[in-house]
Amino acid sequence: MTRRTRLLALLILAAAGHAGGLVAQVAGLPVRNAGIGTGFGIAADVGFPSASAGKGIAVGATASIGLGPLGFSASAATWDPKDAGERINSVGATGNLKIIGGPLIPLSVTLQAGAARFTEDRTTIEGEPLEFRTWHLPVGVGIALTIPNPVFSIKPWVAPRLDVLRTTIEADTPAETSTTSDFGISGGVDLGFLNGLTIRAMYDRVSRGSGINVSTLSVGLGFKVGT
């Protein structure tokens, strides 16, 4: 088997396995599309990817801002997959456009497009170094419903999307690149308190083809100044 053939085989495995199993907006965490409000928010989440996604524990932080119907977020995460050679660090951002919803409307519908980047170093059986560079590009719609309560609000949400992964293997030979497009869906529940504190739980699942489904679950805390 030539080196080029081995790289192509690795790209196919990456799209279906560990490198392609990075389901999240940032590695190891779900893609969040729970709507936007006005003001500034910060949050921290802990993710637990499934076995098909690489297992291990991921920790990430997100800052977001809402400006009327427009919203933006930036995230960073670090993930230590089980049996992997090293920790994976990633950064990402999203842009959001609210098409339905407002201060007095409990239902919101939000369009979202995002991008994240992460790298992973590996070696071949022969001991040659390889660098996997992955771009994750989720595009979808989020539907959320805010249910008010005297003490806290309950906001369930669901967000189907097109999930695009573009993976490049860098080696001594010219780089090889593969792009896959799959169906993904995420959802969760936020508990929002009057002081701006939010407790949130999220779940993400992507069908990678060939019967492979990768998923991750996360829990986190957020704080928001605004509505």
Order of H and E elements:
HEEEEEEEEEE
Largest sheet: 10 strands, antiparallel, barrel
Domain unit count: 1
Averaging pLDDT over every residue, what do you get?
A: 85
Radius of gyration: 18 Å
Outline:
elongated
Structural class: mainly beta
Strand order of the largest sheet: 1-2-3-4-5-6-7-8-9-10
Report the sheet-strand fraction.
over 45%
Q: What's the helical proportion of residues?
A: under 10%
Might you state the CATH topology name?
Porin
Description:
The chain is mainly beta and 227 residues long. The protein has one domain: Porin (Beta Barrel). Helix content is 6%, strand content 66%. The protein has 1 helix and 10 strands. Strands 1-2-3-4-5-6-7-8-9-10 form a 10-stranded antiparallel β-barrel. A hairpin with a 5-residue loop joins strand 7 and strand 8. The chain starts with a helix and ends with a strand. The N terminus is likely disordered.
Secondary structure: elements and pairs:
Elements: H1 3-16, E1 39-49, E2 57-67, E3 70-80, E4 88-102, E5 105-123, E6 129-145, E7 152-170, E8 176-193, E9 197-209, E10 212-226
Antiparallel strand pairs: 1-2, 1-10, 2-3, 3-4, 4-5, 5-6, 6-7, 7-8, 8-9, 9-10
